[in-house]
Design brief:
There is one protein chain. Helices cover 36% and strands 31% of the residues. By secondary structure, the protein is an alpha/beta fold. The chain has one domain (2-58).
Length: 59
């Protein structure tokens, strides 16, 4: 199963939401998001998520 990480840097981007929903609907993808707008980010956790993902998208 492909692991996809979406890092959200801006609030309310409709295009990214559509892409994330489409990928999450696929049975072949494990989709995770990390929102940098939700308080001070845990960068250690973010690095772990980046290196464990097959692909990363930053929005």
């Amino acid at each position: 199963m492909r692991r996809i990480l979406h890092i959200l840097t801006a609030e309310d981007r409709p295009f990214s939401s559509e892409i994330i929903q489409h990928q999450a609907a696929s049975p072949h993808c494990n989709v995770e998001t990390f929102d940098l707008n939700q308080g001070p980010p845990d960068y250690d956790m973010l690095l772990d998520k980046i290196f464990s993902a097959d692909s990363v998208a930053v929005w």
